[in-house]
């Protein structure tokens, strides 16, 4: 699969370099270009209104300067650009945490929007990975390095939710935004995979390493 990596502005740790592939197409968003140095990579395109960092000095063909007054966040613009270029998968780094919690929420919306366009999306930082399960879809999550497993209704309500292979299994459950039933689950003893599906309403799935 062809993959685009979008680097947003939240500083990342060099350890995330392990997630990069040699053939990744990299889009840096505004101050996200500073993360390229931390990860030892070079952006193919830099986009942004450059309100959080000065516009870098490099080949002008590789920079898209956006207006300050716009509907799209810089990361959303980068996601739409990735979709236009036909990538099958998008990994967003530097999109979680930081001092602007609203940017994290906006980036979750961007991830869901990519999935709804048929592009597999993941947001990841040093401790967690966030992905999505759409209605009618079933996804298997191998245990890997993660310990905690949480699922939330991204669209406010999800019905017909199943979780198998987890300590607290769900069967035809309803998840609502007003009650965090799906938080802090774990892999069942002997389980190497949790399978999640939803009949109605998208889910956001958070995998987190142990404390």
What does this structure look like?
The chain is α/β, with parallel strands linked by helices and 211 residues long. Helix content is 16%, strand content 35%. The chain is built from three helices and 14 strands. The chain has helices at 33-39, 74-84, 101-116, and strands at 3-7, 25-29, 45-48, 63-65, 89-93, 120-124, 128-133, 137-142, 148-153, 157-164, 170-176, 185-186, 193-198, 203-208. Strands 4-3-2-1-5-6-7-14-9-12 form a ten-stranded mixed beta sheet, with helices on both faces. A hairpin with a 3-residue loop joins strand 6 and strand 7 (128-133). The model has no long low-confidence stretch (mean pLDDT 92). Keywords: ATP-binding, Kinase, Nucleotide-binding, Transferase. Residues 136-204 form the Thiamin pyrophosphokinase thiamin-binding domain.
């Amino acid at each position: 699969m062809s993959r685009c990596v979008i680097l947003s502005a939240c500083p990342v740790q060099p350890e995330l370099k392990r997630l990069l592939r040699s053939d990744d197409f990299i889009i840096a968003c505004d101050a996200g270009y500073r993360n390229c140095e931390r990860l030892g990579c070079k952006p193919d395109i830099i986009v942004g209104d450059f309100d959080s960092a000065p516009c870098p000095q490099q080949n002008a063909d590789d920079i898209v300067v956006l207006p300050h007054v716009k509907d799209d966040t810089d990361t959303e613009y980068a996601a739409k650009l990735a979709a236009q270029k036909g990538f099958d998968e998008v990994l967003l780094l530097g999109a979680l945490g930081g001092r602007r919690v609203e940017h994290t929420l906006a980036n979750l919306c961007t991830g869901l929007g990519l999935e709804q366009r048929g592009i597999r999306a993941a947001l990841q930082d040093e401790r967690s990975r966030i992905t999505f399960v759409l209605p009618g879809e079933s996804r298997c999550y191998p245990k890997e390095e993660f310990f905690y497993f949480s699922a939330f209704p991204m669209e406010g309500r999800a019905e017909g939710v199943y979780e198998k292979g987890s300590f607290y299994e769900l069967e035809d459950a309803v998840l609502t935004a007003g009650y965090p039933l799906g938080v802090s689950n774990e892999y069942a003893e002997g389980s190497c995979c949790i399978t999640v599906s939803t009949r109605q309403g998208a889910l956001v799935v958070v995998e987190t390493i142990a404390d």
